[in-house]
Amino acid sequence: MFFDISIYFLYTKIIMKGFFITFEGIDGCGKTTQAILLYKYLKKKKYNVIHTREPGGTVVAEYLRKLILNPETKILPNTELLLYLSCRSEITAKIIKPAIEKGKIIICERFSDSTSAYQGYARGFNLNFINKLNNFVTEGLKPDLTILLDLDVKNALNKIYRRKKLKDRLDNETVKFHQKVRNGFLKLKEKEPYRIKLVKIEESINKTHQKIVKIVENEFKKYFRTK
After folding, report:
1. Hey, what domains does the chain have and what are their CATH numbers?
2. Which residues are CB-neighbours of 215 under 8 A, at least 6 positions away?
3. pTM of structure
């Protein structure tokens, strides 16, 4: 069988660029479930893929996660913003960027869009200020693809209330707050439709997963073709 060595080097160059995928959406929309399903799907396809989360991913960030999400913790909005950014600094430098440099596919639950939606649109911090802070802690890194899972706020909150495990601090926010977050995500999608892909949640977890797989495969085709 004839093997074109130039194609091999082109393929290697493409893979070595890495690919960064994030999952976003309001609390209760199913980010963790869908991120894990995509991770398993890509693993089965023999992709070099890792799965991580925000806040978290490193020893320091996981410690801060427990503090940030503890329902008993009272945190000022300014402190909350800086804690999330501290976690992002950790995971970007220690997990995401090294993985990209090694040509891996990274799936991360939440990233900079969450700060814009939660602390910007919902808490009221200036979006330009947040963008500058995000650029500082990530050194300008942005996801190649963001899957925005969209679900009605009341349905999402009902899912949270049905959980057996304890709710986290943000789960206890008002319906109005979560609606602001959802509206914020939708506005971000309008600003960057080529990066942020909206996925309406289906009753069937598998149907939602299949929607995501289709988007990811299409993005891979475009990415591999243009790099």
Report:
1. 19-226 (3.40.50.300)
2. 145, 147, 197, 199
3. 0.90
